[in-house]
């Protein structure tokens, strides 16, 4: 019976079908195996079984012989994998960070003034804005200041509207509606977790008086979105409402910057800002047309290409950038950085006076400003004392006036009574929309969505890439600005610890902290508060706003969340660098400084121990001399006694190989999530009795990763491959640098966990090889695509739902 059933059901045709199905199943299984799946606690990543694909492609050597990929040595495989990224810009676009897609085609009549009358909607494209402004500034320089002399900088003046510089087009959703159909303040308040501290923080269109419109410099309420935001509501809200509020504030009540500075590799260009006016409402576009040979009356239908990179290069060619003048280089930092003599030290010794900023300094400044104002008043109101020279010599710039007003305002408060200056984009969290982001990492005015908030059209991987772009670029542009302008600053806290490990920013930290001496902080505020900084246009279109707290003159503990003295804010996202000053105060210092303080007191000298307003303390010798180094391809400074500072703040930070499921991999000099590494240790014992990973055991395995395993890692995970490709040269350079600064028994092959103590200052400073090493440090090309390229061009093109 069994035989007859077999004959009945297992016909030759059925056998052929079965074999075909089996073959298809095997092919699918094999494909799935070869493609692999990479799991991650923070993301899901598409994986390529890179090595298998490479094995099918022959690699030619110089003799023309062919060697199969699988027969290569591990080091050769790594080089071959990296070469593939170099040679395939389309596939590995994230590995090629040069600026692209910077041209914009427009039609002339679409931007003529007459076509924007009674039109409140907003057009935004940084290529448009930057092309127009660069052309305008160039032509003003050629007429008024062709040699870019510092004494004539104030003669270059342009109007400004935030809507030309920040993407406020979200508001068009309301601006296209009749006024009575637009959102109102009630829409915002409905999702607040508590009432706003000031109930009048928001005004509906129907409540706008002429005085309010005059303050906003808007022609009518028709140009307001329905809800005009005067100030931060200070409470929590949804991601969407926080964006509405910040963008409405910028459109309506936000004050303009005082100046704009364009960075370049050889100096800067500066222009003063006066008047609130959109490009389409003024004469800037008409000037641009004329400069490019177009007549708006005749060429309305003409389409042409705007190119900000071309405009910037034209400016560079016709007007030399303004470098730092020696007399303005207060500490000689700029001269040191630009000196390529390999025998010269780039160490920066800071005088103790730089940290000595106390009440007598405030009193002296107030007295000086009051005297100036009295002279100005008499010279302009008393004909017997009228004197043009007196007016000229005592005239306050707008920056000085703002500084003086902040100084006087701060002096009217004790630290316990001062108001909170900076406001964040506080978010409702612990819900389906947002599980953990409280909004503390975004300035509320420029908030453009939480970095890891899952918004439509984005996936987790894309958000994490965006975060890396933002943090790398903001660090790069702060130090490009500071190094050109001679502003003394150094990395601190998390970034300093991160620098120690691999010379990069941690992938799990969203904070960037910068410190500077208290005297330098006040100088920085006086010169550059409320200034807009524009990235070197050949590298990207980043724009950063400098905002300094009125209470930076206080050096004691902050009782009102004023721990931060200034911020360098990315206006495209609201992300920022925290800037804190270190100075002398009457706060109780840790016991470790007791003898130092007593010794200085016995001599009647200011104590050489300094603190920020969050009560982190440092001695003068822990900070000075500052050491020139690199982080993420950016030249910057770190404090002198790195080990001592880090051990005080992070007791195990220099030795523990793990943090929140990330592990440091010496073999590639990167922090990598556990879920991307565990496949390397199948069969190994690293779980505890509950089945969870024992981080100590897993760390020991990670320390043993071999070159063969690195190949597997790069073949399996394109994210790791890309990060390794972008950072390899700089992390290896950092490992070499550590040999000059720390005891490393195996030289550059020493594991981070095996590094000994920091060498003495004398050992480091007297080493000519160390000075030769630092003399060669310079800006590298950006590690990441520009935020414009990534958000507007690359991400939409390569998005995977």
From TrEMBL:
Any single Pfam family the record assigns to this protein: LicD
Key words of the record: Membrane, Transmembrane, Transmembrane helix
Subcellular location, record wording: Membrane
Topology in membrane: Single-pass membrane protein
GO cellular component, one term: membrane
Top-level taxonomic group: Eukaryota
InterPro entries on file: FKTN/MNN4/W02B3.4-1, LicD/FKTN/FKRP_NTP_transf
Any single GO BP term: glycoprotein metabolic process
Presence of keyword Transmembrane: yes
Domain (LicD/FKTN/FKRP nucleotidyltransferase): residue spans on this chain: 483-594, 610-650
Transmembrane segments: 14-36
Protein name stated in the entry: LicD/FKTN/FKRP nucleotidyltransferase domain-containing protein
């Amino acid at each position: 019976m069994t035989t007859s059933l077999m004959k009945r059901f297992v016909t030759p045709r059925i056998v052929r079908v079965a074999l075909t199905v089996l073959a298809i199943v095997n092919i699918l299984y094999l494909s799935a195996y070869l493609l692999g799946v990479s799991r991650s606690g923070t993301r899901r990543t598409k994986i390529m079984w890179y090595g298998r694909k490479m094995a099918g492609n022959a690699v030619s050597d110089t003799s023309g012989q062919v060697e199969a990929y699988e027969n290569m040595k591990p080091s050769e495989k790594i080089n071959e994998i990296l070469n593939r990224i170099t040679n395939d810009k389309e596939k590995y676009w994230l590995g090629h960070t040069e600026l692209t897609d910077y041209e914009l085609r427009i039609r002339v009549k679409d931007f003529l003034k007459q076509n924007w009358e009674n039109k409140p909607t907003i057009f935004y494209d940084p290529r448009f804005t930057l092309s127009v402004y660069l052309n305008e500034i160039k032509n003003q320089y050629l007429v008024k200041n062709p040699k870019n002399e510092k004494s004539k900088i104030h003669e270059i003046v342009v109007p400004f509207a935030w809507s030309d510089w920040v993407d406020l087009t979200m508001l068009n959703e309301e601006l296209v509606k009749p006024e009575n159909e637009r959102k109102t303040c009630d829409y915002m308040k409905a999702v607040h977790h508590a009432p706003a501290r000031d109930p009048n923080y928001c005004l509906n269109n129907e409540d706008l008086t002429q005085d309010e419109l005059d303050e906003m410099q808007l022609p009518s309420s028709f140009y307001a979105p329905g809800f005009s935001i005067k100030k931060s509501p200070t409470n929590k809200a949804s991601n969407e409402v926080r964006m509405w509020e910040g963008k409405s504030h910028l459109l309506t009540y936000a004050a303009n910057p005082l100046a704009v500075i364009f960075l370049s590799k050889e100096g800067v260009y500066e222009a003063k800002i006066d008047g609130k006016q959109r490009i389409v409402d003024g004469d800037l576009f008409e000037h641009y047309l004329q400069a490019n040979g177009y007549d708006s009356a005749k060429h309305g239908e003409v389409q042409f290409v705007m190119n900000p990179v071309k405009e910037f290069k034209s400016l560079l060619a016709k007007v030399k950038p303004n470098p730092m003048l020696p007399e303005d280089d207060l500490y000689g930092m700029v001269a040191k950085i630009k000196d390529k003599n390999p025998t010269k030290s780039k160490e920066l010794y800071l005088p103790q006076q730089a940290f000595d900023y106390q009440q007598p300094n405030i009193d002296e400044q107030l007295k000086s400003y009051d005297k100036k104002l009295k002279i100005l008043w008499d010279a302009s109101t008393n004909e017997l004392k009228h004197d043009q020279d007196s007016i000229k010599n005592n005239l306050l710039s707008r920056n000085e006036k703002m500084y003086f007003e902040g100084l006087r305002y701060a002096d009217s408060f004790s630290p316990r009574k001062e108001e909170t200056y900076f406001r964040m984009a506080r978010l409702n969290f612990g819900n389906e929309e947002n599980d953990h982001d409280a909004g503390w990492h975004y300035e509320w005015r420029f908030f453009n969505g939480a970095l890891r908030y899952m918004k439509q059209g984005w996936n987790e991987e894309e958000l994490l890439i965006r975060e890396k772009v933002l943090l790398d670029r903001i660090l790069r542009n702060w130090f490009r600005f500071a190094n050109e302008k001679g502003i003394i600053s150094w990395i601190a806290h998390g970034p300093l610890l991160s620098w120690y490990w691999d010379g990069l920013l941690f992938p799990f930290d969203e904070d960037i902290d910068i410190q500077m001496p208290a005297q330098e902080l006040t100088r920085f505020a006086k010169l550059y508060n409320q200034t807009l900084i524009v990235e070197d246009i050949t590298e990207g279109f980043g724009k950063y706003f400098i905002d300094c707290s009125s209470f930076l003159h206080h050096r004691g503990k902050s009782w009102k969340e004023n721990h931060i003295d200034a911020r360098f804010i990315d206006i495209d996202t609201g992300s920022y660098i925290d800037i804190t000053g270190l100075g002398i105060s009457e706060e109780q210092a840790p016991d470790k400084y007791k003898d130092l303080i007593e010794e200085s007191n016995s001599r009647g000298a200011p104590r050489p121990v300094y603190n920020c307003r969050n009560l982190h303390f440092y001695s003068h010798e822990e900070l000075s001399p500052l050491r020139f180094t690199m982080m993420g391809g950016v030249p910057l400074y770190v404090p002198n006694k790195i080990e001592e500072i880090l051990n005080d703040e992070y007791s195990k930070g220099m030795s523990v190989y793990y943090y929140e499921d990330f592990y440091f991999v010496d073999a590639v000099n990167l922090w990598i999530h556990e879920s991307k590494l565990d496949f390397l240790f199948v069969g190994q014992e690293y779980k505890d009795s509950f089945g969870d990973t024992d981080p100590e055991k897993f760390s020991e395995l990670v320390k043993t990763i071999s070159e063969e395993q690195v190949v597997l890692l790069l073949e399996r995970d394109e994210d790791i491959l890309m990060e390794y490709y972008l950072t390899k040269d700089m992390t290896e350079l950092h490992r070499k640098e550590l040999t000059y600064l720390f005891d490393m028994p195996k030289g550059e092959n020493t594991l981070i966990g095996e590094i000994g103590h920091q060498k003495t200052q004398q050992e480091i400073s007297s080493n000519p090889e160390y000075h030769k090493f630092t003399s060669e440090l310079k800006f590298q090309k950006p590690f990441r695509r520009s935020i414009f390229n990534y958000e507007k061009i690359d991400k939409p093109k390569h998005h995977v739902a």
